[in-house]
Design goal:
Number of helices: 3
Radius of gyration: 20 Å
Shape: elongated
CATH topology: Translation Initiation Factor IF3
Order of helices and strands: HEEEHEHE
Largest sheet: 3 strands, antiparallel
Strand content: 25-35%
Structural class: alpha+beta
Amino acid sequence: MKMMKKIAYALVAVLLIVFVMSCTTFKLSGIQVTKEIQSYQRVGEFKIEVPVMELLGASGGANIGNFTATAMDEKIYDAIQREISKYTGDAAVNVTVEYRFTLINAVLNSLTGSILAPAVAEVSGVIVKYSN
């Protein structure tokens, strides 16, 4: 009976580890890569931050409840589109997305006992206007 209890605890621990390791921390879809692009002029650069809210884990790391992971691509694309419009450009090139946490995110994570795990998706790139 005691041995069965130990086996059950070990099985629950393994399943919990597998569940936590399989969580999505960040997803960005619809990326396009091309070697040939029409000629363009640089009209500006941008660097923006998009907030990410997760639950039960570490800021900027793996979490059990990441309810923004699959919705981040739309938020990031909308933020990039706003930057393109701001510069009256046609496209964004050399876009980089970096997932990280700030000091405030880490403090909030600590104060809530790792219940809230906020982070930031930092997006940067170059806005271009196509040449005619």
